[in-house]
Specification:
The protein is an alpha+beta fold and about 90 residues long. It has one domain: Glutaredoxin (3-Layer(aba) Sandwich), CATH 3.40.30.10. The protein contains 3 helices and 5 strands, in the order E-E-H-E-H-E-E-H. Strand 2, helix 1 and strand 3 form a beta-alpha-beta unit.
Length: about 90
């Protein structure tokens, strides 16, 4: 499964987002992180092969994350389901 890395100056956290390419909230979450100059990686689950999609869903289940998009995982532990700017800011110290 290939993720896309978006460079940013603020690197204090490991940020990974599971998204759908057609999801407006997912686009807003990515834009918010880019506008905040936060480095992050993402994967558009709907663009994955069926095997990759199953693996992504399994990873979310293992982390006990809701299967809805976007799902933002910060430092491998903090899970934010949906686009919640204030919660993202707090988690990243922005």
């Amino acid at each position: 499964m290939t993720s896309t890395k978006v460079k940013g100056k603020k690197r204090g956290h490991d940020v990974f987002i599971y998204t759908l390419s057609t999801c407006g909230w997912c686009k807003r979450a990515k834009q918010f992180l880019s506008d905040s100059d936060v480095e992050y990686e993402y994967i558009d689950v709907d663009k994955c092969t069926p095997e990759e999609r199953r693996a992504a869903i399994q990873r979310l289940r293992e982390k006990k994350a809701p299967i809805g998009f976007p799902v933002i995982i910060i430092d491998g532990e903090r899970i934010i389901s949906g686009f919640k700017p204030e919660e993202i800011k707090e988690a990243l110290g922005l």
